[in-house]
Amino acid sequence: EEEEEEEFGVVDITAAAMLLGGVTFVMMLFQLVNVDDDDIRRYAWKVISDTVSIFMAVLFFQGNNEMLELAAEQIGLREVTTVFIHFFHCLLYVLVLLIFIGWNSGVWEKDGSALDVETWVVADAMLVKYGEGVPEDKVRAVIRNDHESRKSVYTDEYGLEVAVVKKHVEYETRKRRNACWATLIAHMAGFASIGAGGSMQQSEFFNRGPVVCFIPVLVTLLVLIAFFQLSALYREKLRQEAVSFGRKGRRAKMVHEAVGEAENDILSLAASFLTVQVIRFAITGQLPNAEGLEEPVKFDLTLWHVSVLAGVGFGFCIACMLIARGRSMMAGGAQGQGHGNKEEEEEEGVSVRILEVLMSTVAMCFAWCALICVRWAWELHPFLGIKVLSIIGRIMLALILSLLTFLVVYVLDSIHDRLRASEADTKTSEHAISAIIGAVSVLVGFSWEHSFDGAVTAVADLNQEYPQCTKFVLGICVFGFLLRPWRRYILMRSLQLESLKTEREKSVNKMVKDQQESTHRTEASTSSLLQKE
C-alpha cells in the first residue's frame, strides 16, 4: 500500500515559516554587524543595543505596573489616587537612577585615587580575556623600562605575543557601568512616565477632546522637569563638595553626564508618545488606551487616517532636520566666538540640551507615527489574511520594521558618506542621523516588546487564577536572562565602536591642526625671507 502523504496543519506551517524567517533574520544581523563599513557597524550595534534595552525595560516596567494596578483595583482606589501612584512610580525610577549612578561612580567614596591608576590590559578583541589586566612583569615595555609607551605586547601562557594597551581601567569600567544602568533605568523611567501621563489622559476629565487631552502631556513634562531640576542641584552640590576637598570632581562629572543623558531620554520618550496619542485622538476621534491600542475600535479606519498620520510623521522628520541644523549652527558659533565666562557656558549648555531634547522628541514622534501607520495599513489590508494583533502578526510586524530600520540606517549612512566626500558640513547630518537612529530603535524595541507581551499574555492566560502574577514572573525571568549578555557583549561592543569613532575624530582634528600650524609656520618663514631680501 502506498503511504499516505503527511498533511501539515496551520501550526506546522506557522512553525516552519518562523523557523525559516528566524534563521534568515539572525544571519542578516550577523551580516550587518560585520559589514565592511565602520559607520553602519556602529549604527547596527546601537540599534540592536537600544532595541534590547527598550525590550527589557518595557517588559520589567509592565510587569511591575500590572501588579501595581492589580493592587489598586483590589484596594478600590479612586481614579485620582491611581494617577498619583503612577507618578510616584515614575519618580521612583528617577530617584533610583540618581542613587545607583552616584553609588557606581563613587561620589560618596572618600578615596578617588583608584581612577588615576593605569593598568596594562589585553587589546586583542578576538581573545576571551579582552580588556582584562595582565602581569606587568611580562609586558615588553615594562621589561625595557619604557615608561612612556602606551601600547606594547606581552607573552601569554601559550608563548604567543598578545597586544596590550595601558588604560585607566577603574575609570572606564565605572563609565561603562554607568552607560549600562543609565540607559536601562532611563527607559524604565521613560515608560513609567508614559504610564503616568497616559493614566491621566484616560481619566474622564481629560479624555473629552484632543485639546484637553494635551494638558496631561504638559503636566507630565513639568513634573519631570521639576524633579530633574532638584537632581541638577544635588549634582552641582556633589561637584562643589569634590572641589572643596581638593579633588578633580571626575566622579561628580560622571554622574552629571550619565544622569543628564538619561533625563533627556526620559523627557523625549514621554513627550513623544503622549503627543502622538493626542494626534491620533484628533485624527480618529478615539483616544487609544495606555498601551497605544484602539480596543475596541470605535471608528471606521480608512486610507485617509493612514495618509494624515503619515503626513504628520513626515513633518516631524523635517522638523528633526531643521532642529539638527540649528544645533550645528549654535555649536559652530560657540566654537568661533568662544566663551566669555562660566555663566555664558552654562547658558550655552542649557540651550544645546533643550535643542537635543527637542530634536530627539520630534524624531521619536516620527517613529511612533511610522509604527502606527504600518499597523493601520496592515489592519486595512491584512497580510496573508493575518490579523496584526495576533501573535504571528505582531512577530511579522516586528520583523518587517526591523528590516526597514536597517534599510533606513543604510540609506542615512550613504547620504552622510556623500556629504563627507563633497567636503560639506556633516555636523547637521550627524546630529539628525543620531536622533533618527535612536528614535527607530525605540520603534523596533517597542514592536518586539509588543510581540513578546502578546506571547507572555497568551502563556499567562493558562493560569486563569493568577494571570497577572504569571506575567510578572515570566517578565522578570526573561529580564534576568537577557541582562547579562546585553550588558557584557551587545552594549559593550556598541560603546567600543562609539569610542573608536571619537578617537578617530580626535586624531583627524589633531592632524588638521598640525597641518594648519605647519602651513602657517612655512608661510611665516617664507614671508620673513622675502622681507630680508
Write the layout of secondary structure elements.
Elements: H1 10-33, H2 38-75, H3 79-105, E1 119-122, H4 140-143, E2 151-155, E3 161-167, H5 169-201, H6 210-213, H7 215-244, H8 250-284, H9 303-337, H10 342-380, H11 391-421, H12 427-460, H13 467-532
Antiparallel strand pairs: 1-3, 2-3
Helix pairs in contact: 2-5, 2-11, 2-12, 2-13, 3-5, 3-7, 3-8, 5-7, 5-8, 7-8, 8-10, 9-10, 9-12, 10-12, 11-12, 12-13
Q: Give me the number of helical elements.
A: 13
State the end-to-end distance: 112 Å
Instruction: Outline the low-pLDDT stretches.
Output: none
Estimate the helix proportion, in percent.
over 70%
Provide an overview of this structure:
Helix content is about 75%, strand content about 5%. The model has no long low-confidence stretch (mean pLDDT about 80). A three-stranded antiparallel sheet has the order 1-3-2, with no helix packed on it. The relative contact order is 0.11. Helix 2 crosses helix 12. The chain is mainly alpha-helical. Strand 2 and strand 3 form a beta hairpin.
Question: Brief description of this entry?
Answer:
It is built from 13 helices and 3 strands; from the N terminus they run αααβαββααααααααα. It is mostly helical and 533 residues long. The protein starts with 9 loop residues before the first helix and ends with a helix.
Give keywords.
533 residues; mainly alpha; 3-stranded antiparallel beta sheet; 13 helices; 3 strands; 3% strand; globular
